[in-house]
Amino acid sequence: MSQELAIAGKIKTFLEVQKGIGKTSGNPWASQEFVVANNDGYEGKEQIFCFKVFGEDKVEQLTKFNKVDDDVKVFFNISTNEYNGKYYTSLNSWRVEKIGDVASSESSEEDISDMPF
Predict the structure, then answer these.
(1) Which three-class secondary structure state does DSSP give residue 28?
(2) Helix (H, G, I), strand (E, B) or coil at 71
(3) d(CA 88, CA 70)
(4) CATH no. for 5-113
């Protein structure tokens, strides 16, 4: 059974875009990491999460539609890879939603349904 993973918080920063050429495919690739923080930690302390998007189109969309200090909900998968006896875990984002956009679209629908005509 699969569980949908999501975290809500504020975008703190975008790291530099990483680019390269696939070793086996020879195709170009791009990835970018970004940091989201919230106050859901122990006793309300700030937690930070570093997410990654992979693919040139996703990298382009990430910074085109999102800015530092935006309140967002990040949907992601967790993956772990082993290299030389060490394990590396990644939070791979597959969707980023602005929290304010969702709320404003819901409230506008409610306003319309309250109209007398």
Answers:
(1) strand
(2) strand
(3) 28
(4) 2.40.50.140
